[in-house]
Specification:
By secondary structure, the protein is an alpha/beta fold. Helices cover 47% and strands 9% of the residues. It contains 18 helices and 12 strands. The longest helix has 23 residues, at 360-382. The protein is elongated, with a radius of gyration of 29 Å.
Length: 528
């Protein structure tokens, strides 16, 4: 019923599905089965689709905006009956109409040849109950589930169980569903995902984990902390902060609502989370290159454990306000220490772009930008006359030399003239300084750029990526990282991995110790 996807790899099919937006019918026909097969055949995590350990009679689904995780749950649990719990409205659609659309998709799963046989549910239209809530509140969810599960047709036969799923719905609906399941002793299921796309802000369905929460109330909160740990470890500090704000609200709430002023967590524990959140804001500013802002943010992280770009560069770095910047470090290209700190920090950031976000295009472009920073510093070192060097440094605050011209100048013969008018930073340079120490071909032997003229290949690819949206192969991005790392090692006479600078956040376990997050279980205070 839906259009066909053209990609073969399940990850590529997922991206194509997001980009083309062909609808849920296409999702069922073209992607759902591939996701479930990939999850089932994951040898590293064979329990991805563990379910609840028993056949399911009646499954209650709290319905949110996305149907994909619900359809996955139905295929894994294969219930005999389904109750759809819906809000009154979803955008411009009434809850019952929204539920009817979902029920048609559920029935489309039955006998669908595009799904593996062991994931096809056996349901009839009469087996799907649509319940629109009379009001959006946890109490109404609780009462609706109580009413539905008391019906005779909802009583499970011997060997079967009923289940409540809380995937993807609004918080108020999740709360009511949780309290009903806790009251009734029913298993709760939840769909989680190991991998999220930072650009689309959506999970990859083939990394789904569908199973029962053993201790529902406790596990529901610990899952949030597990996500904070994953976000922190992958340097998604903004996402971790957003989740911590939600956690803080939950910590300062009470189960009794307005009946009591006693919170779930004491003020000291909540204060620890507030302090930790401030540290993440500092890391967010640092990782975005706003070193001055990072240096201004208060944090309990010891000074000698902060990133060196924050401590060494921050106090004298640009002041960033919107699109404006001020207080430029005037002699940056002549300050070898500051330059080395910046370059080492930037190379580590490029590595993270590839490792955590698979953003190979951005990684290549950042490597190209850093490469030209280092080449500009090389040129400055060739100028012996102090007055001329200072004039150049001042000119470089407004314009940067053209990368190709820098390579051409720096690879000339010793004693050749440097034509300053040909660098792209303005005309009117009457001086003709000599090239005192030509740059060697440090790029030779590096992957795609290993030939004698490999720097030209590097610049050609950089220009193409800057002006056209072209994907980048991981190996090509890795070659670009090796390219700029070789430039670093040749210029500073030390490999980037041997410098004494701190270029990373403290490890998660160390952060837990610094901020005394001892209210977390020990297993959540360990590194991933």
């Amino acid at each position: 019923m839906g259009q066909q996807l053209t990609k073969r790899n399940v990850r590529d099919r997922t991206l194509e599905y997001w980009e083309e937006k062909p609808g849920y019918w296409c999702y069922i026909d073209e992607l759902l089965g591939e996701e479930l097969k990939a999850a089932k055949n994951d040898n590293e995590n064979p329990r991805r689709l563990q379910g609840v350990g028993q056949p399911v009679h009646t499954l209650a689904l709290t319905v949110g905006e996305s149907f994909e995780p619900l359809l996955q749950t139905i295929c894994v649990l294969r219930p005999q009956r389904i109750i759809l719990i819906l809000n009154q409205r979803y955008g411009n659609k009434k809850g019952k109409e929204y539920g009817h659309n979902l029920s048609q998709l559920i029935l489309y799963l039955v006998g669908n040849q595009n799904l593996p046989e062991d994931f096809r549910p056996q349901l009839l239209e009469k087996d799907i109950q649509i319940r629109e809530l009379p009001a959006d509140s946890p109490t109404q969810v609780f009462r609706t589930l109580l009413e539905e599960f008391q019906k005779s047709e909802a009583q499970p036969p011997a060997g079967y169980t009923n289940v409540v799923d809380i995937t993807g719905a609004k918080k108020s609906m999740i709360a009511g569903a949780f309290f009903y399941a806790a009251h009734s002793g029913l298993p709760i299921t939840y769909v989680d995902f190991d991998k999220y796309d930072p650009d689309w802000r959506r999970p990859y369905g083939y990394t789904c984990k569908i199973g029962q929460i053993a201790n529902p109330y406790e596990a529901f909160h610990l899952r949030d902390w597990e996500q904070v740990r994953r976000l922190y470890t992958s340097y998604n500090f903004r996402g971790a902060c957003e989740l911590l704000e939600q956690i803080k609200q939950a910590m300062s709430s009470s189960l009794e609502g307005g009946v009591t002023n006693i919170h779930l967590f004491d003020d000291e524990s909540i204060h620890k989370v507030q302090e930790f959140t401030r540290a993440l804001r500092m890391y967010e500013a640092w990782d975005s290159g706003n070193f001055k802002r990072a240096s201004q943010l208060s944090t309990l992280i010891p000074y000698d454990e902060l990133p060196s770009a924050v401590t060494k560069l921050g106090p004298n770095w640009f002041e960033v306000t919107g699109s404006d910047r001020s207080d430029d470090p005037s002699n940056f290209y002549a300050d070898r220490t500051a330059l080395q700190v910046y370059a080492a920090d930037e190379i580590a950031r490029i590595e993270r772009l590839m490792q955590h976000f698979q953003d190979y295009r951005s990684a290549f472009l950042r490597a190209a930008g850093l490469n030209e920073v280092l080449l500009t510093a090389r040129l400055v070192e060739q100028i012996e006359d102090d007055n001329l060097r200072n004039r150049l440094l001042n000119a470089f605050r407004g314009k940067t030399p053209i990368g190709r011209r820098l390579f051409e100048v720096l690879t000339k013969n010793q004693g050749d003239y440097i034509d300053l008018n040909n660098l792209g930073v303005g005309r009117g340079w009457s001086e003709r300084p000599l090239l005192r120490a030509p740059m060697g071909a440090w790029w030779q032997g590096i992957g795609e750029f290993g030939a004698a003229n490999g720097w030209e290949t590097f610049l050609d690819i950089r220009n193409m990526l800057a002006h056209r949206y072209v994907s980048v192969d991981p190996q090509l991005a890795d070659d670009a990282l090796s390219f700029v790392s070789a430039n670093f090692a040749d210029f500073f006479k030390i490999k980037v991995g041997q410098v004494p600078w701190i270029v990373s956040a403290v490890r998660w376990s160390r952060a837990c110790a610094i901020f005394k997050l001892d209210f977390l279980p020990p297993q959540l205070r360990t590194d991933l």
